[in-house]
Amino acid sequence: MADQSTVQIQTEEIRMKKSMNLLHCVAVLVAVTGHISIFISPGVIFSAAGSIGLTIIEWICAGLLNIGVCLCFVELATVFPSAGGPYAYVTNVFGGLSGFVIMWGYIILIVGPFWAYLSYTASVYILEPFFRIDCHPPALAVKFLGAWILSTLVVLNCIYMKYVTKVQTVLTASKVVCLILIIVLGAVVLGRGHETKSNFEDVFENTPSEAGPVALGIFYSLFVYGGWQIVCGLMEEVKEPARDIPRAVYISFTIVIIQYVLVNISYFLVLTPAQFLSSNAVAIIFTQVHFPYLTPVMSILVGMSAVGVLNASIMGHSRLIFAGARNGHAPPVFGMLHVRYLTPWPAIIIKAVWSAVMLFSGSVKIFMQFIQAFSSVMTLFVVSALLYLRWSQPQLKRPYKVCYL
Length: 405
Prior knowledge:
Elements: H1 22-32, H2 42-49, H3 52-79, H4 86-94, H5 96-127, H6 139-159, H7 161-192, H8 211-223, H9 241-270, H10 273-278, H11 282-290, H12 295-326, H13 345-361, H14 364-392
Helix pairs in contact: 1-9, 2-8, 3-8, 3-9, 3-14, 4-5, 4-14, 5-6, 5-12, 5-13, 5-14, 6-12, 6-13, 7-9, 7-12, 8-14, 11-12
């Protein structure tokens, strides 16, 4: 190893109860994988891909690539079951400096833009139904409402944590309901013969001949399957992690990829390319064209989904800087808990402030670029750590081993 630095995660003597089986793992991964990208990012991917056919191919390829990366994380998670994710894997293998870079890069280039992205999504879906299909809410209004949503959830997570966790299941379920609704409505449009036939006369029309736009489309597509990193935190709660978690990865990604492909096809059955690119709130435009009476329902469901993912992110992401402070990689104040509420106020608030800065200074495309760029760097570090351990410690016990490396 690069040096003797190791991550010291604060744990209690009592371990979590191993109560999760394969079905539980699949349910968790299906719920979190892809967060709410299917409702806000398709237009960005389509604008880069240029054609419907290439767009669908990129969504499928991105899902398959994410499976491979996820399984690399699973192998390291079985080696370091209590380590605390990529930050700890990299620190344990390459030393404290690498861990420091990963932790602060994650906070600045992933957490901040991601919270801003989720706040923006919730806001735009709340405001969009109040405007005609050819008119969209002012950007500043969207960002101010997004900032209010973010600050409200931060306060709730700091003070009323037990109440927030009770509604999380309902918020998460709204995403599944919304996806099913879009697929069903797409099937209804197809069954009635009202689909936009011109979209499917030549699905590869306008496909770029240069490699750059294609690569950019794949780059954006990789982002839309994020959220599976929660798999790193499941090890202690799964009865047979080395057996069930890899299976859960294959099953859940298969479900999510099929869902996302069907939702994209539903979008293209209803919307023209111009409509598809006209707004980030593509699901709202989808309902406004053929099912205007369902627009408020779609707005509520997607808004709830975005709030649910943001709430879960605030609860989960705050642990990273909290752990980093305990290990000397962040100022000690970020390792403190409120004496009454026992929540990491400083860790939550500093990230909320940075997220607000990102919200007012960026756009959906910029958020995606920041997040995916550093996600790629972090993945490179993690895969390098995996390969280094394979070379330096070939006899190390590995309950699960990635077969293609």
